[in-house]
């Protein structure tokens, strides 16, 4: 796997780790800046989901397999577009800072996943 993708995976894992901590231990702080408000059960569920995704990202990093790397990248791209668009809709509706940052962060990650995909699989075609 190329260095760019490895850096992207590390960045995603770090960001998701931070989100897990915030969702589990500081849900009121997160909700005060979000259009979604607080929902403790939902925020715990998001944190657990993030942990599950981090396990997948770590596994793909530890054992390279082109098929599974493509599958994980596609899932990250689709998820990033969906989550980013959800944040963007709420940002446009309520101008909440957390949602604006969430939209930008997710769209930048999608761009990074696409660039990493191109870099990785362009060299394998040669």
From TrEMBL:
The keyword Membrane belongs to this UniProt entry's keyword annotation: yes
Keywords: Membrane, Transmembrane, Transmembrane helix
Transmembrane portions of the chain: 7-26, 46-64, 71-91, 97-117
Full protein name: Uncharacterized protein
């Amino acid at each position: 796997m190329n260095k760019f993708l490895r850096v992207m995976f590390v960045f995603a894992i770090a960001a998701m780790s931070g989100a897990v901590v915030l969702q589990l231990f500081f849900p009121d702080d997160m909700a005060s800046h979000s259009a979604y408000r607080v929902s403790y059960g939902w925020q715990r569920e998001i944190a657990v989901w993030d942990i599950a995704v981090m396990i997948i990202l770590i596994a793909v990093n530890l054992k390279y397999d082109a098929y599974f790397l493509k599958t994980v990248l596609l899932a990250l791209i689709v998820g990033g577009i969906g989550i980013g668009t959800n944040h963007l809709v709420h940002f446009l509706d309520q101008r909440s800072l957390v949602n604006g940052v969430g939209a930008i962060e997710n769209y930048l990650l999608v761009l990074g996943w696409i660039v990493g995909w191109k870099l990785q699989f362009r060299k394998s075609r040669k």
